[in-house]
Write the structure tokens for this entry.
Amino acid sequence: MDVRDQNLIEIEGVPGFWEELEGAGRTCLVLDYDGTIAPFQVDRMQAFPLEGVVDLLTHIRDGGTTYLAMMTGRPMKELLYLLGDLGIPISASQGAEFRYPDGTWLTLLPTDRQEDRLRKGVEEAAALDLGGKVERKVASVAMHTRGMDPDDAKRVEDELCRTWDADADDYNLDCRHFIGGVELRLKDVDKGTALRTLLDERPRDSFCVYVGDDHTDEDALEVLKERGTGIKVGSPDVPTYAAGRLKDPYAVREFLKGWTKIAT
């Protein structure tokens, strides 16, 4: 097959991407969810994948040549509701939850001391009455600001992070920004540690690709630098560890169409 005849989307920054993929013996594709295959929504539970994406993922999964996995900051149950159960490995809650295709579900829980601090974090967020939406996850607390005026959102995020950062180190916690909010979460547990776990299970000669849009995806993109190709979704002005770029989830859908042509 001549990839030049396949009308494939160009991956900015990686002009030979499709040729490299075609020549790879083993392939691994890991995708972020929100902002990558599902456009952002103010109502987070309406952020479904773009039309056709689930069919493309199913095609890739069933093609027999690609190890396909998903990562998200969302709780596992939310992702399974929005995406459906594709029977692929999933890392959720910023690396604190992991689900294997056989149904094995692993959860990294906070210590009792961290749990007490996270509960206090919920109370602090509520007491500040900043206008965002507070979410308690299995190992974190998040404040969502999507839909707010950008200046107000930044003020809310900065103020809450200052509150949480005051003693976060004492509990081995971090306040981390994500697109649309901030989160008090376990330190050294992230999409990078989750991706490293996935890659440790793959042959060293696998050509691995990670596609993500958020600040939180940079942890995974940094890990991937020596094992494959990272692709950043979104504005070209945002610094990234990724080698390649795609404009938006619609471009990611075209990317997945290309993958089905070349690597299935």
User: Anything to note?
Assistant: The chain is about 35% helix and 20% strand. The chain has a mean pLDDT of 93.
